[in-house]
Specification:
Blueprint lengths: L10 H7 L12 H4 L30 E6 L3 H10 L6 E7 L3 H11 L6 E2 L15 E4 L6 H10 L3 E4 L7 H13 L4 E3 L7 H11 L6 E11 L10 H4 L3 H17 L5 E7 L13 E7 L5 E7 L1 E12 L2 E5 L10 E6 L7 E6 L6 H15 L7 H20 L3 E2 L19
Parallel strand pairs: 1-2, 1-4, 2-3, 4-5, 5-6, 7-10
Antiparallel strand pairs: 7-11, 8-9, 8-15, 9-10, 11-12, 12-13, 13-14
The chain binds nicotinamide-adenine-dinucleotide (NAD).
The site of nicotinamide-adenine-dinucleotide has 18 residues, from helix 3.
């Protein structure tokens, strides 16, 4: 096993060092056992909502070191600022093709000059023991190459969605990480988000009755025709893999099921220079084994629209916006328990910490505690297989059947523990 974490003891190293004498239940990472969380006395009455309490971040020296690869919009606007809210991870290296930009950003975030890399020198990350996890935030076609190279450099990999451009590339990424004994996580930020987690919990507890239908729309109006998102070789596709994937993914994680029949409809306005290579809009229908169905649309030419609604026999949960980085609004509707002649519609508001800090803290914990990520490579591969089937369906003008999954949440790791 490659060892890039000299300060943090993995369970395997601990067992090895003690000749396997410690039992799994007796084992505790020594750094965590040594630092009990600080708690404060309650200030509010029991009728008030529970506060998360102090964040209790780990000391800097014990956190997982991250390298962020690609310094575009998502990295600069969301991911790097999120390190300020993290409890288990810290930014230690940057990878960019633009040295001047990397140096400017390094100054802002306190990254050492020696920890700046470009796409050629990327493999030298193997000699930087401070870096344990690498976050790939590049155009979609580059995800596979940089995941494989990161794994070969002995680093754990967290990769943006869509996982890659094809399911074959997704499989290569999974294989490379497995071979190098490194973790692979896909950045499905909403699977760690409190409102989405609440809907998952309501669905699993049957609070909405039997799930029947999911509808969702995710759209934005695209600008510059020359950006990589409009080049098939770089993006893999248009609205579907970029924004439609959120609807597809939510239908899967709210129900826990995998679709067995899918049908897709693609459209691009003729002569619009943005959509010469990738689709402008993609609508799709998914059928699941229990009879649950999803109907979703994704757009590259509508004003920002991000709504969803999960409908069961006894109630519904609706979010608008439902896919944004912040400002999510969740409403739940069902027959009133107090007034049988009325419906209750309640708004459930959770605090909204950075979704990126949450998912990166989860992945950091997986590295520290040797746990399978909640959204591993297999979860990204599952979406990509369905996306491929949807494109085939749109091309052939008919529904495409898919293999049934053997269990609920077939491709997910254990639920995230992150709170707050
Ligand atoms: P972006 O265009 O803003 O940034 C891409 C970065 O890659 C830039 O720094 C660019 O210089 C670099 N790059 C390297 N080689 C390139 C090439 N050949 N062509 C173009 N750029 C190249 O894109 P972004 O919005 O930051 O998206 C990056 C990734 O993050 C994509 O996979 C995207 O799907 C994903 N993303 C995820 C979310 C989310 O909510 N999870 C949101 C936005 C983007």
């Amino acid at each position: 096993m490659m060892d890039d974490a000299p300060r943090l003891w993995t369970r395997r190293r601990m067992l090895g060092a003690t000749g396997g004498l410690l039992t799994a239940s007796a084992w505790m990472p020594p750094v965590l056992a040594a630092a009990p969380p600080v708690k404060l006395p309650d200030t509010f009455a029991k009728t008030e909502r529970e506060r998360p309490g102090p964040p209790n971040p780990q000391p800097e020296s014990e956190r997982v070191g991250w390298a962020v690869v690609g310094l575009g919009h998502l990295s600069l606007e969301e991911i790097l600022p999120a390190f300020g809210q993290m409890k288990r991870g810290k930014l230690v290296a940057l990878v960019s093709g633009d040295r001047a930009k990397a140096q400017a950003i390094a100054k802002q975030y306190g990254v050492a000059d020696k920890s700046l890399y470009d796409y050629k020198s990327f493999d030298q990350l193997k000699d930087n023991p401070e870096v344990q996890a690498v976050y790939i935030v590049l155009p979609n076609s580059m995800h596979a190459e940089f995941t494989v190279r990161a794994a070969q450099a002995g680093k754990h990999v967290f990769c943006e969605k869509p996982m890659a451009n094809t399911s074959a590339e997704c499989q290569q990424m999974i294989d490379a990480c497995r071979k190098a004994d490194r973790k692979l996580g896909i950045a499905y930020r909403l699977q760690y988000e409190p409102h989405h987690r609440a809907v998952i919990q309501m669905a699993r507890n049957k609070e909405l009755g039997t799930l029947k239908l999911f509808t969702a729309n995710n759209g934005q109006n695209q600008g510059d025709p020359n950006q990589w998102r409009h080049k098939k070789a770089l993006a893999g596709g248009g609205a579907l893999p970029d924004v439609g994937i959120y609807c597809l993914s939510a239908a899967r994680y709210f129900s826990g099921e995998e679709p067995t029949e899918v049908q897709g409809f693609s459209y691009s306005t003729p002569d619009d220079p943005r959509f010469k290579e990738v689709e402008e809009s993609f609508a799709f229908h998914l059928r699941f084994p229990s009879g649950f169905q999803a109907h979703c649309t994704s757009h590259y030419s509508t004003h920002e629209t991000k709504d969803l609604r999960l409908m069961g026999t006894d109630g519904w949960a609706s979010m608008d916006p439902g896919f944004s980085y912040s400002g999510l609004r969740l409403r739940v509707g069902m027959k009133s328990k107090s007034f049988p002649k009325a419906d209750d519609t309640v708004e459930r508001s959770f605090s909204q910490p950075s979704q990126f800090a949450r998912e990166m803290d989860h992945f950091s914990r997986c590295v520290q505690e040797n746990v399978v990520p909640h959204t591993p490579g297999e979860e990204g591969l599952a979406d990509m297989r369905i996306i491929e089937a949807l494109y085939r369906s749109a091309q052939e003008g008919q529904a495409v059947k898919l293999e049934a999954a053997k269990k609920l949440d077939a491709f997910r790791g254990p639920p995230p523990k992150e709170e707050g």
